[in-house]
UniProtKB/TrEMBL annotation:
It is found in: Cell outer membrane. The keyword Transport applies. GO terms for cellular component: cell outer membrane. Residues 1-23 form the signal peptide. This is TonB-dependent receptor.
Length: 695
């Protein structure tokens, strides 16, 4: 965790064919058309400008062989600039997010046809990112990536950059895509199908309808099927031994005695004994690396040309995403793991040793019930109705957008009441090698979790590519307003809404024939955290035809999310190393790993994050088919909203009293003190992790 303002400075050199560069081919003289690209609201001729933008056409996307947006970005964007997060164990399970320049998803703005998408219905601990799973690849005609801060153009979240997905327009005919595949190991089978059908020609018929359907079914990839991930013991490669303990068979400990394994470790791991005689099973089984994914999305895009100057457009998209994860069998909770004399599960003699009425602590997973199931469903809806056109030389556009995501999760977990009753009154024997499956499953319950997020946006903008002329050329101008209503509702954690009002303006000024200035200014007002003003200045200079020099300076901001401001304490867990206990006990690597409960907490006093961005670069185009770009950037972020790493809190417990207050520990076990005299701390019960502005 960094307590100083974030500082990122990096040199990136990139050599690409023209198919991957911003300008693929110079258009014919009689077909020059001004277009709007991400990073500016002023239409311009399709060429390099003062901002670092890469545009990928449909042909570029098809060359990757990608069948999802995530796969396409992974193939197209240089890895030094890209950061993905896709898994089922986070607070936003089942989502796939992307971040530019190592700043994470929360600092990268995702747009579809230049407009925002609703975030995932589940908060990802401290924010709620947009999931790429809801964007259909078959409908995408172009992907635009802006590597620069753009709060002056788009407002909050555009700190590290912006990714804009543009759908097909005026498409006629039918296009099919399909993919069948699996890993060489035989797992990870996947079937992908996509179809796009376009009807009508805008120029001839005055209207066009595009319908798309995308279907994906992907089986899980199993760690156990691959040599590189089969074992958790990485010592032979110079790594650590990360094998877990106590997964199979289980173990017990008579008060005052040592930990003894029950049958079941054999075939799954290695039995180890410490110097005090405590046994443990170093399990070496890995499970699933990816989930079973089923996804379907359908989209309709309609355009109607009233006349040569005005057109109506409408977009409707729905998607359903279902992901099924399997994790380790559910464990008997610590609070129910102590057997007392008189309990039905209590034994007077265990493995020939009398218990003499002493408490017996058991450590066991309910493996007879099978792997724990974690199912996540995500439903998204997006509708846009708008009009665009021209009045004299002014370009105008307005639209109303509604976007929502509803996510639900059903996760198997231990039912503490049922387990306690079964151990006290009968119904489950923890010392038995294999209880009936029906008895084991009866001890489980499902935790159902649901979250929704929605955006309602009204926007209008006005632009002029040649507001007036200077000796060096025409001055472009754009201005607009936005009204956004944001809502979030997550069961027992957050239910809130806010209104955001925005106004912005932009100028493109040719200072010299080969020197262009972009100046932009935007003001956003949030009714819960106040207002923010975001300026931007950018210059581009072309000393000769094949060389472009550019630079920009911008101030950006990111408003605290509704979850960051209003989320009630949210429970989770974390795998950690408590070296203050492990070192006195002689534990290393995976033997020191444990699971701790966390309470993530919001903070209604959070301030917006602010950033100052600097970018310098050059583009050299020796031929029309190749370009070389070198760019340097620096991002200094202040008041970063973060929660501390649980491991950081644990590691600095003794040196920082404020962090020590976040950790709640159990009392020392007298038996542990007897075996480990230098042990001074009990096991960790829970760690509180409040959000704060730390940079």
């Amino acid at each position: 965790m960094r307590f100083k303002p974030k500082f990122l400075a990096m040199m990136i050199a990139q050599i690409t064919a023209s198919a991957l560069s911003y300008a693929e081919e110079p258009p014919a003289v009689n077909k020059v058309e001004r277009v709007e690209v991400v990073g500016s609201n002023i239409k311009r001729i399709n060429q390099e400008g003062p901002f670092l933008v890469t545009v990928f056409k449909r042909a570029d996307i098809e060359k990757t062989g990608a069948t999802t947006v995530v796969e396409a970005l992974d193939q197209l964007i240089p890895k030094a600039s890209l950061e993905f997060a896709t898994d089922g164990g986070r607070f936003a399970p089942g989502s796939s997010t992307v971040g530019l320049r190592g700043m994470g998803a929360k600092n990268t703005l995702i747009l579809l046809n230049g407009r925002r998408l609703a975030p995932n219905g589940f908060a990802d601990v401290d924010t709620s990112p947009v999931s790429l799973n809801n964007i259909p690849l078959s409908a995408i005609e172009q992907i635009e990536v802006l590597y620069d801060g753009a709060a002056a153009i788009y407002g909050s979240d555009a700190v590290a950059g912006v990714i804009n997905f543009k759908t097909k327009r005026d498409f006629e005919g039918v296009a099919l895509t399909s993919k069948l595949g699996q890993n060489f190991a035989g797992d990870g089978q996947n079937v992908v199908f996509g179809i796009a059908a376009g009807f009508g020609n805008l120029n001839e018929d005055g209207q066009n309808l595009l319908l798309t359907l995308d279907v994906l079914n992907k089986q899980p990839t199993k760690d156990s099927e691959h040599d590189a991930t089969r074992s958790l013991d990485h010592r032979s490669q110079g790594g650590a031994d990360n094998r877990f303990t106590g997964l199979y068979g289980g173990a017990y400990k008579i008060k005052g005695g040592t930990t003894t394994l029950l049958p079941g470790c054999e075939g799954h791991g290695e039995i180890a004994i410490d110097k005090f005689g405590n046994q443990k099973c170093l399990a070496n089984d890995n499970l699933y690396r990816t989930a079973h994914i089923q996804r379907i999305s359908a989209n309709a895009l309609y355009s109607y040309q009233f006349n040569d100057h005005f057109s109506l457009f409408a977009e409707l998209g729905i998607s359903k995403d279902k992901q099924e994860f399997e994790t380790w069998p559910v464990a008997i909770p610590t609070a129910q793991a102590v057997l007392k004399e008189g309990d039905a599960a209590y034994r007077d003699v265990i493995n020939g040793v009398k218990t003499d009425g002493k408490d017996v602590t058991i450590s066991r997973r309910i493996y007879e019930a099978g792997l724990a199931q974690n199912d996540v469903d995500s439903d998204s809806l997006r509708a846009v109705l708008g009009a665009r056109g021209s009045i004299s030389a002014w370009d105008v556009e307005t639209a109303l957008t509604y976007s929502s995501n509803k996510s639900s999760q059903s996760r198997e977990r231990a039912d503490a009441t049922k387990i306690s009753n079964a151990l006290k009154n009968g119904g489950y024997d923890p010392f038995l090698a294999w209880n009936p499956e029906s008895q084991a499953k009866a001890l489980l319950t499902r935790r159902n979790h649901e979250g929704t997020a929605s955006l309602l946006i009204a926007d209008a903008k006005l632009s002029h590519s040649a507001l007036f002329s200077l000796p060096a050329g025409d001055v472009g101008f754009a201005t607009g307003i936005n009204l956004l209503k944001e809502k979030a509702d997550e069961d027992a954690t957050v239910a809130s809404s806010r209104l955001v009002k925005s106004i912005y303006g932009e100028l493109s000024i040719p200072l010299l024939k080969n020197l262009e200035l972009q100046a932009a200014l935007r003001y956003d007002h949030y009714d819960d955290v106040g207002g923010a003003t975001s300026p931007k200045l950018a210059l581009s200079y072309r000393p000769f035809g094949t060389l472009l020099l550019r630079g920009s300076a911008t101030s950006t901001f990111r408003a605290p999310s509704l979850q960051q401001l209003n989320m009630s304490p949210t429970p989770s867990y974390y795998f950690y190393n408590d070296w203050a206990r492990c070192q006195p006990m002689g534990l290393e690597g995976g033997s020191c790993s444990g699971r701790v409960d966390l309470n993530s907490q919001s903070n209604p006093q959070l301030k917006p994050e602010t950033s100052n961005n600097l970018t310098l670069g050059l583009v050299f185009e020796p031929t029309k088919d190749a370009s070389v770009s070198v760019d340097w950037y620096q991002i200094k972020q202040n008041d970063a909203i973060e929660k501390l790493s649980p491991q950081y809190v644990i590691d600095h417990e003794d040196s920082n009293p404020a962090l020590a207050k976040l950790i709640k520990r159990f009392a020392l076990d007298p038996d542990e003190v007897k075996n480990y005299p230098s042990l001074t701390k009990g096991k960790i019960d829970v760690i509180d992790l409040p959000l704060s502005n730390i940079g």
